[in-house]
Amino acid sequence: VSIIGVVALLGALFYFGDKNKSSTSTNTAIDPHGHNATANVSLASLNSFIDKPAPEFSFTDRDDKVYSPDNLRGKNIILFFNEGLMCYPACWNQIVALAKDERFKNADTIVLSVVVDSPIEWQKAVKQMPELAEATVVFDKDAATSKRFSMLTTASSMHYGSLPGHTFVLI
């Protein structure tokens, strides 16, 4: 199972917005507390995953169903790493939109929205926005898989080093 693409939503804008830029971008964002969060982001680390075996992962959803390369073999896998609960409404809306997108509703494709929140915390979000129940949200305990995929240091991370940032990985 190889990674065929990595798209960091904001990272793609940094990288493709100016063809004269180097493969290192500086991302300056303001966190919810009003602090500047400046990060030097190397796109080379993300690009190094392309055409390589995907790092090991194992996620569970709200119903304790397990998702891993072994039980997803043969499928096109889209991992949407995002900030989860704290990214309301943007990430929540993206999660719902992915779940409703007809292009991904086939036996060959699965979309997993990866969050570092706990299932109990996430259940509160589903009560607030019932459409979230349509999505396959999986839980990345201690951000372990996010770290293996270098998702905590993407240009799209608004919380550099602690939360994954709005990035799609295509496997």
Question: Biggest β-sheet: count, sense, barrel?
Answer: 5 strands, mixed
What order do the strands of the largest sheet run in, or round the barrel if closed?
A: 1-9-6-7-8
End-to-end separation? 7 Å
In DSSP terms (H or I, runs of 4 or more residues), the helix count works out at 6
Provide the fold topology.
Elements lengths: L4 E4 H9 L6 E7 L5 E7 H5 L11 E2 L5 E2 L1 H4 L3 E6 L8 H11 L8 E7 L3 H10 L8 E3 L4 H5 L18 E4 L1
Q: Can you walk me through this structure?
A:
The chain is an alpha/beta fold. Helix content is 26%, strand content 25%. It contains six helices and nine strands; from the N terminus they run βαββαββαβαβαβαβ. It has helices at 9-17, 43-47, 69-72, 90-100, 119-128, 144-148, and strands at 5-8, 24-30, 36-42, 59-60, 66-67, 76-81, 109-115, 137-139, 167-170. The strands form three sheets. A five-stranded mixed beta sheet has the order 1-9-6-7-8. The radius of gyration is 16 Å and the shape is globular. The model is unreliable at 9-41 (pLDDT under 50).
Can you give me a brief rundown of this structure?
By secondary structure, this protein is an alpha/beta fold.
Relevant terms:
single chain; 171 residues; alpha/beta; 5-stranded mixed β-sheet; two-stranded antiparallel sheet; 6 helices; 9 strands; 26% helix
